[in-house]
Specification:
The protein has 2022 residues and is α+β, with helices and mostly antiparallel strands. The protein has 62 helices and 49 strands. Helix 28 runs antiparallel to helix 29. The longest helix is centred in the last third of the chain and has 37 residues, at 1774-1810. It is flat and about 135 Å long. It starts with a strand and ends with a helix.
Length: 2022
């Protein structure tokens, strides 16, 4: 028995230190005075008595009790039970002036305070209630004056009361105050006692929070509790630690942490601690600490802490059991007839034990099988056992589980193994639960009701452990009188007599020594049950089904190898390699190879040796460095056994070729393997002692087993017999732990000599095994070529330590902990590294295994010699191995090349690896395994080509080719080291090349390719990819004509400063509208640069628009105006040049459309029947550089007018007619977006006085131009409704409007909450503000989910929030109609038919004054910017051509959805569809003006024309469309496709590809309407980026004109010249003259020869005139151009190369009998289906061609035969269905158009009416502030933010688009005269005429107000008068006339009252405060100024000072200003 308490301490307030300014406690008395020998006194106890600090109290406090936990230097816990009460103390205070001379003046002040005093018991036992009783008795004797001496009480507690041992009987005692108490020890000391602490913790936090905290504590995280109760902190900490049983928490454990020690929380080691809640704010900043609020029931997990998850199904089973205990009502909540509630409540103690039972079962289930992974190293003198963590994880399939990895790597589990590992010890509850857990789980699976039964049964055992004596004992404990602590006269706690206390203690100890007859409890040792074997509970694989066949193949392959049937082995070898991905197959391989070892060595032939080594490498590659399956450990003896003879005396073992694996550098693997082999040796050492008992037992089992054993002993020792000898009667072996248990049991019975002999035998066994493993490590670590460095790591990251920060003790020495640095040097000598590694291993295992120091020293001396001898041996092996003939590699296949294509770099031998596409791997898709393939990669002037054969021998007869043009390379990426198991070699370098034609090359260079060649290949590839100009690309350099030796020097742009100034002035004059004086000197004629194709065109370094957001003030740039001196030639100077332009398809298309013609006489008299003309105003490209020379404009618009108003559009791309409807005569125009030009923009570019007039002139000309366009639309002259040719009910958009308003399902997005809120009544309501024809655009950048409102019916996304156009929805209870209804009705009225619709940007079109544009409507639309297209295309490429297979959570369709590519196509179709309906149904003209007019505008305009005009669906028409819309109108192909080095930084933007995809979508829905097929679209998509043809090069017509392409001489080609197989002959190249080859000539040539591009389903008679495709996402198809590939010959779009490759591949079939049909298998990913298996028409034409050749006839064109065919008649029964389908399609199409129109109107009006936008400016915050939207930090230049100048709203730039439009200070102004239109400026008459109209609500910025303010008698002046205003810095006071305008929200000042021009203004929205100030705060005030007349105004920008004539005037100004700003 031990003492109940070790020390009694009295701690009081230290009044002496208080005088020095600090308050603390001090120990007043402690008993005993001297320390106990077995338990020294713990210093610092006074800190834990008052954890929050020693503070005097002004009021009496109740006594408190809590228990702290102290940990000594030996990690033993001591409990400090503290009872604290308060004693009154008198304090004397003095005044502050104590230094007065007269002492009588000092008057002392007395006040009563209360000081804390603590009574403390320090003990090692967990009896909290007993300590509370004992301290309470002492306090009661002190307060109530009990008739007992306190010295007696203290002495009895310390000396007379002892704690009984665990398992002992109940101990009853009294401390001498008439009390009766009892101590009940637990049955088992290893099981913690909790009473009800665990149940209380669950009540405080809940189930999920406790499980999370439990998982965090098990994984060694920092846990911190905080509460207002100290005892709750102790109980919660103890409950958490108790839940970890049988694990013991071994880190810092401080349940109550004093305030002075709060810095302990910053320790890097894990801890469980608790602090008082007053430190809540201090602990909030702790980064990696999990903070638990016990009072609030919350758990805060920092972001840097990853919450570990308990593996399933253990977690689910645990949560279900906890709910059965804590929430029984939850399980029956859904029962129809629940049972009546039980009146008997479950006591907390029972809940506590049941919860603990659940967690004991949790750990027992997690650790099931752990005893099978224990390795016994030593039995005597003390058992030493280690745990094989890798084997445990491998068998249970938890290698990747982070939670179990951290648990097994923690110190708690290491302690668990050391304490519970021995097989012969005292057992407890956990050992019993562990042994039966698997049986219980099987029963519970069959009967779930047994779960709660087993839990309750285990809970009862825990209860019996705490309370083994069921008989209650009534204790008697005196307590103080209630309220005694509040007595006024309270005596001071007396000082105890130390001598008396010590005498009582000594007397009690002596009596206890005499009467100590209490026996120890029931702590008897026994053999620990083993529990289930790990092999029965692990991750069982289905060996019977698939693995049985695989193992049979593996066994056959191994037999073939050792039978020297190499050819047979090679046939099935790939299947064996694939099967080795299974761990069962890898283990079986090691067993099979082990059966073929004879006498520790197996000498093999070279081919046998190579195959065996490949198998070993493949098995090691598929395993991790942990060796969780034991494969590497099994290969160790094999690698040192298999060998081959190189020459006489030189033998090479297999270990020299299997060293390049990470497992050999993992010291934990070597330790685990060593311990496993030592355990086998220890078992063999003691096994003979038990064989006799085993044989006796077997004799009893029968003679059959004995006979089987005898037969086994005499069998021939062949590999097959060895394999069968272990089955079916395998001898049951006794385990090592069983032997150890028996040895430990009989250890005490052995003599000392026998014990020493056993110790020596075990030590010798370990020593010999250490020598063996030292040699093995040397074998595996020293490379064959010692000049190379060691490969400590490979591909696997698991080679590093898999433990966390707090690694286990058993593994802490596995890293170099001596120096803290990695001592391995790259490229250094391997000998020191190997010696260091082996020495470290020897030290670790020998120290743990208790090997003697002498043996360890001898091992250290032996290691260097072993390494040196092995290095010497390997030198000969390496020398002889290099003499072996190399492995024969396949011949490099040369690819077929174009005529003119040259090889830049010869083929480098590489391996083409499989990527994320599974079609060619033959895994899930079936078929042969085409990849990986071995071959070579070639770099030519045109392509990057791989050509080779598959590595799979079953498919090696096929040729693999993957290629793409070098110009399409978008990304080059280096790959890590690759290991190919089928090749048995490491490939050190690899590249991943991604192309924008959806090709991917993952190549790994062969080991024979040196690094210099790889680097050369990369440099040449980048050089070919990024030419300096397009004239260095293959379209020009691929020609056979040599380049001229001398190049013309380009004219320097600005040679001198004078020249630069002259040009600047001329451009400025042009911008201002000033005509320059014509030069009198004769201009030189423009000469075509016929041979100057290498001329360097000045590239633009960046795009003209900023992809992130374009500033509206940038009006003109270098693209807008071209100096005529730079382009002096005129097209009219040479009529031939003009004739050549008139031959272009675009001009012929204008003639076809009836848009006028260009007369060579250039006369101005036009007939009235020709409303349009083709103008040559841009012939010099001076109006717009990016427009063509010939433009279609109205007849009445002169060229001078065009020059004036062109500047109102971005890049001067003014509206130009591009198409005219043949029936409605409506026009389709294209342009760029409008300029939003304000005052600062004007001043920035034009400083002359004529700029304003020039701007006004441009605006007026623009208005006239729009009026001419309206007049040119026939719809504008009609009064009645337009009658269309359709007979359906939806004959116009007006009818659709009415149908939508009367109950249709039109989807219109709801506005903001303000929009939906009912209108207020009274003066505050703005119901008087009516809306008519005005709109406000939303932000131009679409929000994340905003685009869902633009989707049409059938969208795959979530349905948008819609508002059905039902007037009843907006009605109010009082009968009024909500403003929203007015808004929608006004928007509907705004959809009346107008003659001209302008679809433009939101940001650029706001503020347009509709009165200046009659019969026009401006519709803002949403569209995707170029930056969105770029980002979406990258995601699309990764989805269609992934570099690695998609994960389990990702799929192909999900990746496509995340790319956002289909919604972008949908947007283009919807915008084009809106234009189609407006042109065809409404009969109105449409202008598309988006961005700069060359990207999205081109897409929409071209798509609309394809839908409207059948001509563009033919081959010639589609060519004309591309020539006209894409090439002539300046789509920037070079810039968007990154064709030159200067354009690489902008990124690839597939604008044209997106258009082709849209056409593909239309083609899918209307296959009868297109003359060309899908292959034609793919051909264009491929070659517009291939740089093979010049067509899609350069950015505009001007650059092509400078290159001489448009004016080249063309000669008719003879048929023989165009029919050559190479595509074009050398004659044809000569005719091109070095200007490159157009793609159209190539297409025409092939179209004449073959129907390659023809659509045989084309039916002109059956096609619809106007196509209206569905644009919902469900009708979108992923273009197969993105997905398909042809591995047989590469892309089929290089037709000549594909045909040559096919002919080469079919050469092997030429030996077949003529006329004999050969059956061929077509593989979808290998062969091109269109070429290999043509459709019926293609096949028929091929047969006709063959027949003509056989008959000797001249071949005729295929078109001749096709035109003779008669198309079949339509089925009359299908006409009604077709008409119904067309009607339905038209209605849905027009409904989508109406949605776009209504949204553009209603959203703009709602936003302007009910939302106030912010005015953001960029601001760098000098102090840390938070974003008002997302809450993240805004600070410094790294994270600048946006600041609203009106209301001060702060946000990030990325958050601007999501900020609610609720600015609180920006006012709405209803004044028509203040319109901020930047497009037009109305005349005075127009302005005056608008005063009678209804006001419009507008959002106007102060700069716009100032720009357009003109004072008049009608303006609103709230207050005015003279004031003195102080100027800016260093300026004086001046008198000004001030006007306060509350309507315009400004304070303006003028020089005088008569002045009409304001000199400045202050925006009142920026005013923060206005207050009077005194003259002393103002410097430099005027003389004779009234001091009370000063006042200041503080704004967000600066501080203004004003001076009034007197104080009355000043206060009047202050009142007026404050009234305006409130």
């Amino acid at each position: 028995m031990s003492r109940l308490a070790d020390y009694f301490v009295i701690v009081g307030y230290d009044h002496e230190k208080e005088r020095s300014g600090s308050s603390c406690g001090k120990i007043l008395q402690r008993f005993p005075r001297t320390d106990w020998p077995d338990c020294p006194f713990t210093p610092g106890i006074e800190l834990f008595c008052q954890p929050t600090g020693w503070v005097l109290s002004s009021q009496r406090q109740q006594p408190t009790f809590f228990v702290s936990v102290l940990t000594d230097i030996d990690a033993d816990r001591h409990y400090s039970a503290c009872l604290t009460f308060y004693e009154p103390v008198a304090r004397t205070t003095k005044p502050d002036d104590e230094d007065l001379d007269d002492p009588d003046v000092i008057i002392p002040h007395h006040s009563q305070m209360f000081a804390p005093k603590s009574l403390v018991l320090i003990t090692r036992h967990f009896y909290f209630d007993t300590f509370r009783n004992c301290l309470g008795i002492i306090y009661t004797a002190y307060m109530d004056h009990l008739p007992v001496e306190m010295e007696t009480l203290v002495g009895n507690i310390l000396g007379c009361v002892h704690s009984p041992p665990p398992g002992g009987p109940q101990y009853r005692f009294s401390i001498g105050a008439g009390d009766r108490q009892a101590l009940q020890p637990p049955l088992c000391s290893t099981i913690p006692s909790t009473h009800d602490a665990v149940a209380l913790l669950f009540d405080q936090l809940g189930v999920q929070n406790v499980i999370n905290v439990y998982a965090l504590s098990l994984t060694d995280h920092k846990i911190l509790f905080h509460s207002q109760s100290f005892i709750r902190l102790t109980e919660a900490s103890h409950a958490l630690v108790s839940l970890q049983y049988p694990l013991k928490y071994t880190y810092v454990y401080i349940p109550i942490l004093p305030s002075p020690l709060i810095e302990v929380l910053n320790t890097p080691t894990p801890f469980i601690a608790g602090v008082h809640s007053i430190h809540r704010e201090e602990i909030r900043d702790l980064l990696d600490v999990v903070i638990i609020d016990l009072d609030g029931g919350s758990v805060h997990i920092p972001e840097c802490v990853v919450l570990p998850s308990i593996p399933e199904p253990v977690l689910s089973r645990t949560i279900r059991a906890l709910h059965m205990i804590l929430h029984q009502d939850l399980l029956i909540a859904d029962h129809a007839f629940p049972p009546s509630p039980s009146k008997k409540s479950v006591p907390p103690e029972q809940k506590d034990k049941e919860i603990r039972a659940v967690f004991i079962r949790l750990l027992a289930e997690l650790l099931t099988g752990y005893r099978s992974c224990l390795a016994l190293i030593r039995i005597h003198p003390e058992p030493f056992i280690t745990f094989h963590k890798a084997s445990f994880l491998g068998h249970k399939g938890l290698v990747e589980d982070d939670f179990i990895l951290k648990v097994l790597s923690g110190m708690s589990f290491n302690t668990f193994v050391s304490e519970r590992g021995p097989p012969y010890r005292v057992c407890d509850i956990f050992d019993e639960v562990y042994a039966t857990m698997q049986d219980d789980l099987r029963e519970e699976k069959a009967d779930p009701s047994k779960t709660i039964h087993n839990v309750k049964q285990l809970a009862q055992q825990l209860h019996n452990n705490e309370v083994p004596n069921p008989q209650p004992y009534v204790q008697k404990v005196p307590k103080p009188t209630e309220g005694s602590y509040a007595r006024i006269h309270q005596p001071t706690f007396p000082t105890l007599d130390e001598d008396k206390v010590n005498a009582i203690i000594e007397d009690g100890i002596s009596k206890q020594a005499k009467n100590n007859k209490v026996t120890n409890g029931r702590s008897q040792k026994r053999i620990v049950p083993m529990g289930p074997a790990i092999s029965t509970v692990g991750d069982r694989q289905k060996i019977v089904d698939n693995n049985a066949r695989r193992l049979e193949v593996l066994r056959n392959c191994v037999n073939f190898i050792f039978d020297n049937k190499i050819s047979d082995a090679r046939i099935i070898f790939p299947a064996v390699v694939r099967s080795l991905k299974s761990k069962v197959a890898r283990i079986a391989l090691t067993q099979e190879l082990g059966h073929h070892i004879q006498s520790n060595r197996a000498m093999l032939e070279h081919q046998q040796f190579d195959l065996v080594v490949r198998l070993l490498n493949c098995a090691l590659q598929n395993d991790s460095s942990m060796d969780e399956n034991g494969v590497a450990a099994s290969i160790l003896p094999l690698a040192t056994s298999f060998c081959r003879k190189l020459c006489t005396g030189v033998i090479q073992f297999a270990y020299t070729l299997v060293q390049d694996h990470a497992v050999w550098g993992n010291q934990q693997f070597w330790e685990a393997a060593f311990y496993q082999d030592v355990q086998k040796d220890i078992r063999q050492l003691y096994a003979p002692q038990y064989e006799e008992h085993i044989m006796v037992r077997w004799r009893r089992e029968g003679s059959r087993h004995r006979h089987s054993m005898e037969l086994t002993a005499v069998q021939t020792q062949t590999p097959e017999s060895k394999r069968r000898s272990v089955s079916p009667y395998k001898q049951k072996e006794i385990g090592a732990l069983e032997i150890a248990a028996e040895q430990l049991r009989i250890w005490s019975t052995l003599s000392e000599g026998q014990q020493q002999e056993m110790i020596n035998n075990e030590e010798s066994t370990v020593y010999s095994q250490a020598i063996h493993y030292a040699n093995r490590i040397v074998y595996m670590r020293v490379p064959l070529d010692c000049s190379k460095s060691l490969k400590n790591t490979g591909l696997d990251d698991d080679t590093k330590s898999n433990s966390n920060i707090t690694a286990s003790l058993a593994e802490s020495d596995s890293v170099d902990a001596e120096s803290g640095f990695d001592e391995t040097e790259e490229g250094g000598n391997v000998v020191p590294d190997v010696i260091r590694f082996v020495t470290r291993f020897v030290d670790k295992v020998c120290r743990d295994s208790c090997v003697t120091d002498g043996h360890i020293k001898s091992l250290h001396q032996m290691v260097p010699g072993v390494v040196a001898m092995h290095v010497e041996t390997l030198e000969a092996v390496s020398r002889e191995a290099k003499r072996l003939p190399p492995i024969q590699k396949p011949k490099i296949l040369t690819p077929a090349l174009f005529s003119g294509e040259e090889i830049v770099m010869e083929g480098l031998r590489v391996y083409l690896l499989a990527d994320g596409r599974e079609e060619g791997t033959g895994v899930t898709m079936g078929g042969p395994s085409l990849l990986p393939a071995e071959g070579a990669i070639f770099l030519t002037t045109y392509r990057i080509i791989f050509k080779g054969i598959p590595c799979d021998p079953l498919a090696c007869e096929q040729v693999i080719m993957r290629a793409f043009p070098v110009s399409t390379l978008t990304k080059e990426k280096k790959m890590n080291v690759q290991y190919l198991p089928h090749l048995n070699q490491w490939l050190q370098e690899g590249l991943q090349l991604r192309s924008n034609i959806f090709q991917l090359l993952k190549i790994a260079f062969d080991e024979e390719v040196v690094a210099d060649n790889v680097e050369t290949f990369r440099k040449l590839m980048n050089k070919c990819r990024n030419p300096a100009t397009i004239f260095n690309s293959f379209a020009f350099t691929g020609l056979t004509i040599a380049q001229p030796a001398t190049m013309h020097k380009q004219k320097e742009k600005n040679k001198t400063l004078r020249h630069y100034a002259k040009k600047t002035l001329l451009k400025t004059a042009k911008k201002a509208g000033i005509k320059t004086k014509q030069s009198s000197r004769q201009k030189t004629k423009y000469v075509l640069p016929t041979q100057q194709y290498g001329r360097s065109l000045t590239p633009r370094s960046s795009d003209s628009e900023s992809e992130g957001g374009r500033p509206g003030s940038e009006i003109f740039d270098d693209l807008s105006i071209v100096d005529e001196n730079e382009f002096e030639s005129s097209l009219f100077a040479d009529p031939k040049n003009l004739e050549k332009l008139l031959e272009k398809p675009g001009y012929h298309d204008y003639i076809r459309l009836g848009l006028g013609s260009l007369s060579l006489t250039a006369t101005r008299d036009r007939s009235a029947s020709e409303p349009f003309r083709i103008s040559s105003v841009n012939a010099h490209y001076s109006v717009c550089r990016s427009y063509p020379a010939l433009l279609v404009v109205p007849q009445s618009v002169s060229d001078d007018n065009i020059r004036r108003f062109a500047r109102t559009h971005r890049q001067c791309r003014f509206p130009v007619i591009t198409w005219r409807h043949s029936r409605t005569k409506a026009l389709l125009l294209r342009a760029s977006s409008f300029h939003s030009r304000g005052l600062m923009g004007m001043l920035k570019h034009n400083t002359s006085t004529t700029s304003a007039s020039g701007e006004s002139t441009s605006s007026l000309e623009q208005e006239k131009y729009f009026s001419v366009l309206v007049a040119a639309t026939p719809n504008s002259a009609r009064t009645g409704s337009y009658k269309t040719s359709f007979s359906d009910s939806l004959d116009s958009l007006d009818s659709l409007v009415m149908s939508g308003a009367t109950g249709g399902s039109l989807a219109i997005p709801e506005s903001s909450d303000t929009f939906r809120r009912p209108a207020k009544t009274g003066k505050s309501s703005r119901s008087s503000l009516k809306l008519k024809g005005q709109f406000l655009t939303l932000p131009r950048r679409p929000r994340r989910n905003y685009f869902s409102t633009l989707t049409r019916i059938g969208s795959t996304k979530e349905p948008p929030r819609t508002a059905t156009l039902n007037p009843a929805r907006f009605s109010q209870p009082n009968g009024e109609v909500e403003r929203a209804g007015d808004l929608i009705s006004n928007s509907m009225q705004g959809l009346k038919k107008v003659s001209l619709y302008v679809l433009g940007e939101k940001a650029q079109m706001k503020g347009v004054k509709l009165e200046s544009f009659p019969k026009c409507d401006f519709i803002p639309v949403d569209f995707y910017e170029v930056r969105h297209v770029k980002a979406s295309f990258k995601k699309l490429m990764r989805a269609c051509v992934p570099s690695s297979p998609h994960g389990p959570d990702a799929s192909f369709l999900k990746a496509i959805e995340e790319s956002g590519w289909l919604p972008q196509l949908q947007n283009i179709l919807q915008l084009a569809g809106a234009a189609v309906d407006l042109l065809d149904v409404q009969g109105s003209s449409v202008i598309i003006c988006l961005e700069d007019g060359w990207d999205i505008t081109t897409q929409v305009v071209a798509t609309a024309q394809v839908l409207l005009d059948p001509y563009y669906r033919t081959l010639d028409g589609f060519r004309a469309l591309i020539e006209k819309e894409w090439l002539s109108f300046g789509h920037r192909f070079t810039h968007r496709s990154n064709q030159t080095q200067a354009n690489q930084a902008s990124g690839f933007a597939p604008i044209f590809l997106q258009f082709l995809d849209v056409i593909h979508q239309i083609h899918q829905q209307f296959p009868l309407s297109f003359e060309f097929n899908q292959y034609f679209l793919k051909f264009l998509a491929y070659h517009y980026v291939s740089n093979r043809f010049r067509t899609f090069m350069l950015d505009n017509e001007l650059e092509r004109m400078e290159a001489g392409w448009l004016l080249e001489e063309k000669k008719p080609h003879r048929l023989d010249e165009l029919d050559e197989e190479a595509g074009f002959s050398q004659k044809h190249f000569g005719q091109q003259g070095g200007l490159g080859t157009p793609i159209w000539d190539y297409i025409d040539k092939h179209h004449r020869k073959t129907p390659l591009f023809h659509n045989f389903m084309f039916s002109p008679a059956d096609q619809e005139m106007v196509l209206r495709p569905y644009s919902n996402l469900s009708n979108m198809k992923i273009w197969d151009y993105y997905l398909t590939e042809d591995l047989a010959h590469g892309p089929s779009y290089d037709i000549e190369v594909a045909q040559r490759e096919i002919s080469q591949n079919e050469d092997t079939d030429s030996l077949e009998m003529p006329g004999h049909m050969v059956r061929k298998i077509i593989n979808g990913c290998y062969d091109n289906i269109m070429l290999q298996q043509p459709d019926h028409f293609q096949w028929q034409f091929q047969e006709i061609l063959k027949l003509e050749r056989d008959l000797g006839h001249l071949p005729r064109k295929w078109k001749t035969f096709w035109d003779r065919l008669q198309s079949p008649a339509r089925d009359p029964s299908s006409l009604p269905r077709d008409m119904h389908a067309r009607s339905h399609g038209r209605s849905i199409h027009k409904r989508s158009t109406l949605e776009i129109l209504v949204k553009g109107k209603i959203l703009g009006e709602a936003a302007r009416s009910f939302a106030q936008p912010h005015r953001f400016e960029e601001l760098t915050y000098t102090t840390a502030v938070n974003c008002d939207l997302c809450g993240e930090i805004l600070w410094g230049p790294v994270k600048p933010g946006q600041h609203c100048v009106d209301c001060g709203y702060k946000c990030h730039e990325k958050c601007m688009s999501n900020v609610p439009r609720n600015c609180t200070k920006l006012k709405a102004i209803s004044d028509v005269s203040t319109s901020s239109s930047s497009i037009s400026r109305p005349s005075i008459s127009e302005t005056s005429s608008t005063h009678g109209q209804q006001d419009r609500v507008m959002t106007i910025t102060p700069s716009q107000i100032y720009e357009q303010f003109t004072p008049s008698s009608t303006e609103h002046r709230t207050h005015e008068g003279y004031l003195y205003k102080r100027g800016a810095l260093l300026k004086g006071w001046k008198q000004r006339w001030f006007v306060l305008d509350s309507m315009k929200h400004q304070l303006r000042w003028y020089d005088s009252m008569e002045d009409s021009t304001a000199k400045g203004f202050i925006d009142l929205s920026e005013v923060e405060s206005v207050r009077p100030v005194g003259s002393k705060h103002v410097q430099g005030a005027p003389k004779k100024a009234d001091e009370s007349g000063f006042f200041e105004m503080k704004t967000t920008r600066r501080l203004y000072h004003f001076l009034a004539s007197d104080s009355r005037v000043a206060h009047e100004w202050i009142d007026k200003i404050q009234g305006c700003i409130q």
